[in-house]
Amino acid sequence: MMMLRLLEFLFALLIPVFPSLPWSTDILESKGPGTVLQTFLFNCSSYMPTLELLSVKPPTSFFNKPSLQGQKGLYRGKVTLSSSARLDALAVNYYELQLRYTCGNFVVDGSFFVHVLRDPGRIHCTGAFASPAGEFIYVPETVTPGALLYTLLLPGLGGQRAQMNITSAQDPPVFPGPFSIDEHGLLRAPSQGLRGQAQKTFQLQILVSLGKSQRCKGMLTVKVLPAPPSHVSFLKKAQSITIAEDLVPGSEVVQVQARGLNLLYEIISPRPSPLYSIGQADGVVRTTAPLDLVRVQGAVVTKLQVKAFERLRPWASAVSDLTVIVRAVNQRPPRCHPALLVTQIPETALEGTVLDTLTCVDPDSAGAPLDYQLRFHSPPDSASLRLRGRTLEVNATLDCDAPGACFQHLASILVSDGGQPQMTGQVWVPQVISLTAKWSPAEVPVLVMVTPVNEFSPSCMPHTFRVREDAGPYTLLGSIVGTDVDHPRNSLEYHISGGLSTFAVDRLSGELHLLGPLDYEQQRLYRIVILLIDHSQDWDLNSHRSGSCTITIEVEGIARADLDSKGPSWCTMTLCWGPRGQSRPPLMSY
Ligand SMILES: *[C@@H]1O[C@H](CO)[C@@H](O)[C@H](O)[C@H]1NC(C)=O
Ligand SMILES: *[C@@H]1O[C@H](CO)[C@@H](O)[C@H](O)[C@H]1NC(C)=O
Ligand SMILES: *[C@@H]1O[C@H](CO)[C@@H](O)[C@H](O)[C@H]1NC(C)=O
User: Fold this and answer.
1) What pTM value is reported for the model?
2) Which of the listed residues 152, 160, 164, 165 should we mutate to test ligand 2's pocket, taking the one with most ligand atoms within 8 A of CB?
3) Which neighbouring-strand residues pair with 219?
4) Would the CB of 163 count as within 6 Å of ligand 2?
5) Ligand nearest the Cα atom of residue 103
6) CB atoms within 10 A of CB 271
7) Domain extents in the chain
8) Greater model confidence, 364 or 408
9) Which fold has domain 233-327?
10) Alpha-helix residue ranges (DSSP H) falling in 13-88
11) More confident residue, 214 or 446
12) Which atom of ligand 1 is nearest to the CA of 19?
């Protein structure tokens, strides 16, 4: 009573006070919006009073603007929690409110302290989780599917199991798949993972319920970060591959390999690549066209640039240089003209005489040097012919008169395209030479017929035959032996020079016969010239050579009585005569 009196007295004196102002109040953190923190009573008789909230420390919107109601000079002011109030003793447990009361000219400021008390046994959706934007969780896109992303810990939950549910929609295509949270607050990534979701944010409304009555909501916001730039690199920064030109299109050249995640391959130079392709996924480089070095210009060396890059982040890439060298392969033997070399030449041809000249071209590599080799078949080791370059010449004598010599040379010329240092454009690649094509010789048969030449004249030695004067008709006096060294040997005929004679020579055998009667008394000595004419020793059948020798025949005399008793019988070419009269002569071939 004394106190009231004092206060009335003070008001009567218009001394401004907050008559019923408590300096502080305690409040449980579980108190929600609208909770009245404190009521103040004011007297103000002649003016319209005001009550203002000047500031809150720490700043918050948890407190409403104070209300002031009343009449007849008595007013009731109230400080209440605003609709946004989420008191959390673990976050802030002490607020200081600055209030100002005005009544006419009378102004008074005062502090009001609010102590927030913890409320054990109650769940709290507090902090950033409870804020409108929610708690931010940063996750790399490479996170393992289903991996643990975050643990939601709520004050007051202790060891109790609360139901935690994501209540917001998580439907594709916005979401790769649903996130999940369990009763322990473990948030897990979708089982599909988060690849390709870089820079996206996923907002998850979480409802936490404990029993029937207690529940609160919050938000978890998952922000997906691009994976750290992965390093794409080739196992070989540069490599050189040599392939054969006869590879069929589609053949594997090489498989390039790069390190990195989820890689694709492409050829970036030349673009387009006319001869080679690369498998997008496997990096296998293949030929796409025939590589015929003669027909495809510039196929001998191709410099390729191959790129490997990540499928989802194509900017993560690496480049490798691949040089493909095509080595020549002999697919065709050289072609020669003439394809068959048949020729004839007289045996007297001089050394160096040209028989023929081959003209050969390698269809695989026009203009490439060719190698020519002469091989004898029959006779096997002839030195008669030689090859100078691609010209077949007479090397030594072709003489066929010597015993065992022949008129025919069977040989062949091997033509090889041994090496192919292909030069294409300005590029010269030494490897190509070392990898020369395999031998593929063409064989040109050679038949050289040596035609005989009648070089030598036949000859015979002078000789003397003796014959008795009573020798009968056709008596053989002896044989004349003529010789001729041309081939075939002694191919000659015998003739007696001059007209009809007492003697006859056999044309073929050279035997000399008596043809007419002899008379020692009349002629004791005969000299006849034997003419030798050769034949068949020359390509030209009309070519004959001749020789001769003189044969002497000595007649031996006999006693006359002996002669008469014999009763001679002599014949001319047409008639014989003797003691038994005339008769026909026997047939003789002269
Ligand atoms: C002030 O308030 C008291 C009640 O506490 C009341 O009796 C008195 O009349 C009031 N005075 C004025 C001036 O309004
Ligand atoms: C919430 O999640 C629990 C498992 O934590 C589940 O048993 C319950 O059915 C879910 N409730 C709703 C409404 O989804
Ligand atoms: C050519 O003849 C000479 C002898 O005259 C011989 O030494 C040489 O081997 C011959 N050449 C050939 C290619 O036969």
Assistant:
1) 0.43
2) 165
3) 205
4) yes
5) 1
6) 8
7) 16-117, 127-225, 233-327, 335-451, 459-577
8) 408
9) Immunoglobulin-like (2.60.40)
10) none
11) 446
12) 5
Query: What letter would DSSP give residue 383?
Result: -
What CA dihedral angle connects 519, 525, 527 and 530, to 10 degrees? 60
Instruction: Name the percent of the chain lying above pLDDT 90.
Output: 39
Closest-lying ligand to the alpha carbon of 73?
1
Ligand nearest to the CA of 375: 3
For a mutational test of ligand 1's pocket, the pick from 1, 8, 10, 48, i.e. the residue with the most ligand atoms closer than 8 A to its C-beta, is 8
- ∠ Cα 173 179 182 (to 5°): 160
Give the integer Cα–Cα distance in Å for 34 and 75.
20
Asked if residues 468 and 504 have their Cβ atoms less than 8 Å apart, the reply is no
pLDDT digits (tens, 9 = 90+) for 152-207: 888 767 667 788 999 999 988 889 999 999 988 899 999 999 988 989 999 999 99
**CB under 8 Å to 174, separation ≥6 — which residues?**
none
Domain topology for 459-577: Immunoglobulin-like (2.60.40)
Q: What angle do CA 330, 331, 333 make, to 5 degrees?
A: 75
Both tokens of 234, joined, read 């080739």
Name the fold adopted by 335-451.
Immunoglobulin-like (2.60.40)
Q: State the Cα–Cα distance between residues 371 and 418, nearest whole angstrom.
A: 7
Residue 101 CB contacts under 8 Å (≥ 6 apart), including other chains: 16, 18, 40, 42, 49, 50, 51, 77, 107, 108, 109, 110
Task: State the virtual CA torsion across 168, 173, 176, 179 in degrees, nearest 10.
Answer: 10
The C-alpha atoms of residue 490 and residue 458 are separated, in whole angstroms, by 8
Task: Count Cβ atoms within 10 A of the Cβ of residue 186 and give its class: 0-12 exposed, 13-18 middle, 19 or more buried.
Answer: middle
DSSP code for 197:
-
Q: What is the pLDDT of residues 488-515, one digit of tens each?
A: 888 999 999 887 678 999 999 999 999 8
Classify domain 127-225 at the CATH topology level.
Answer: Immunoglobulin-like (2.60.40)
- For residue 426, what pLDDT band results from cuts at 50, 70 and 90? very low
**Which residue shows structure tokens 């029993």?**
211
Which amino acid is residue 486, in one-letter code?
D
d(CA 259, CA 316): 11
Q: For domain 16-117, which architecture applies?
A: Sandwich (2.60)
| CA nearest ligand 3 atom 14, residue | 383
How many other CB atoms are found less than 10 A from the CB of residue 104? Answer: 13
Residues 490, 525 contacting (CB under 8 angstroms): no
pLDDT at 578: 47
For residue 587, what are the CA distances in angstroms to 173, 373, 504, 573, 584?
Answer: 133, 64, 14, 10, 9
Q: What residues have CB less than 8 Å from 270, skipping those under 6 apart?
A: 302, 304
Who wins on pLDDT, 187 or 442?
187
Q: Which two tokens stand for residue 553?
A: 């025949």
> In angstroms, rounded to a whole number, what is the distance separating the alpha carbons of residues 75 and 66?
12
